Amino acid sequence: MSIQDVENTKNASLQFNAECTSCGASIEFNPTAGKLKCPYCDHETDIPLPEDEEERVAQEMDFEEAEKTGNFDWGAEKKTIICKSCSAETIYDALQVADSCPYCGSNQVMEASDTNSLAPNGVCVFEVTDKQAGENFQKWIKGKWFMPSEAKRSAKPDSFKGVYVPYWTFDTKTSSRYNAQYGIDRKVKDKDGKERTETDWYNTSGFYQEFIDDHLVSATKRYDRKMMKKVEPFNVLNNKGYRPEYVAGFLSERYSLGLKEGWGQARKEIHDHLHGRISSKIKREHNADRVRNLKLSTTHDDITYKYLMLPIWLSSFTFNNKIYHFMVNGQTGKVGGDVPTSPLRVTIAILAVATLLFILWYFFR
Hints:
Elements: H1 3-9, E1 28-30, E2 35-37, E3 44-45, E4 61-62, E5 78-82, E6 89-93, E7 96-100, E8 107-109, E9 122-123, H2 130-142, H3 149-154, E10 161-189, E11 195-218, H4 225-231, E12 240-241, E13 251-253, H5 259-286, E14 290-319, E15 322-329, E16 335-337, H6 343-364
Parallel strand pairs: 9-14, 10-13
Antiparallel strand pairs: 1-2, 2-3, 4-14, 5-6, 7-8, 7-13, 9-12, 10-11, 10-14, 14-15, 15-16
């Protein structure tokens, strides 16, 4: 660590008093009560609301005026944090911005001292407890048809870790000019009387506008993207203006995918979305059966963004000496993850489907 890094870490500090006013222990955000709660004496503390109504939810930020838009590949970087309660110095991964002191247990909600990154302006708080996450996991795993029975019986989640994961949301007014071909099917008979389908193709062009609201892009490269997709969507409208009290007792991660690259990913996904919407529009307007060679040119106006922290429960279970990870959406309780697969069950299912298809073929022949 350089001398400059050491100087920067001296500025890292608690953003609110994390001590219980009743017993002096570390307090945590309680999803059930929506308050700060002491896990030892159960004393609860209300989280004060901002006086300004607009500050109670995350505000849209102007994309063009953002100055810090780059990525942060911080996986190997470290920082030193000094505990306010016991003065212990702890080395953390630079992406980790909220944790508890390993020496005295004090909750520390830390702002990374790096001045080249943006701070979150909103948070969707945990609404599902770790107990509810475990119950949802058990229901989810029972529905896995190809999972070995022994694995279902033995699968017990390890202790859950609540993590606030960074996301970008983007709003934009889109205006698209397009040209394409649409096809209308008709039935014809050949000289032998057999019927076939032919398609008549016609050219078309037009203009399409749509406002894209809160398009979501994950701002972390740490977690399996396919697994994260399984626990989406999040209700990003149900957000609160960022306050460190909301993330007390949980891990929080700063973004590694920067605003600029996040917008680049959003543009590609919005393009695919618009492609589908325009195809549907063409079919509807021309009573067409199919669309091909669709080309569109889109302009984006009034681009805004939010930097939100979204809640996820992380855990895992072990079967046959292999670890299987899974996630639970901290808002909805939706579960996604990996499970072991029984080759025997898969084979039986394939044979059953093949047998059914043969019977149907034989019957209708």
